[in-house]
Amino acid sequence: HTVCASGCNFTSIQAAINAACPGDTIEVHSGTYAENVVVNKTLTLQGVDTGAGLPVVDAGGSGDAIKLSADGCTLEGFIAENAGSSYSGIKAISNNNTISGNNVTGNINGILLESSNGNTVAGNIATANYCGIYLASSSDNTISGNTATRSATTGSTFGIYLYSSSNNNTLTGNTANGNTYYGIFLQSSCNSNTISGNTANGNTHYGIF
After folding, report:
1. End-to-end CA gap in the chain
2. What pTM value is reported for the model?
């Protein structure tokens, strides 16, 4: 399935998801898609720069830009922005997903894993979100090679934030610089996590706390 402004199977990402079967791949071309995308079956969503940059999912200030509610999804190569108050650019409420190579900006939470286990979050860029990458009650995830920083004029409070019994996660090779409070912050019964090879410079309070 392909999605683009014209000449593809679909002009809407959600329409392509609704028509897809589990295991399908949906290829989304450059463009801005004013949608709240819900991935409710096991799919691969691949953003493709066809000459005008990565495809942008713009939530329009309401709800999550992209939500993964099915297990085993792959989401790669998207810009997710402008989520609503208390919502996320990319939110997972399911398990064993791969979220890689995305840019999240201008959201309360850039990438949120909520009660979501066994995921790989790798090579994403989170700038100017209140919280860049946020794990809430989520365990056994691998968070690697991401950049979670403050932009020049607006700031992230936390680069990478683990909260409420987020256990056995691996955080490696991430960069969390210039955030308003903490680069990497573990709070409230987060146990047995591995934190290695990260860079956390120029954060107002603490690099790793």
Report:
1. 44
2. 0.97
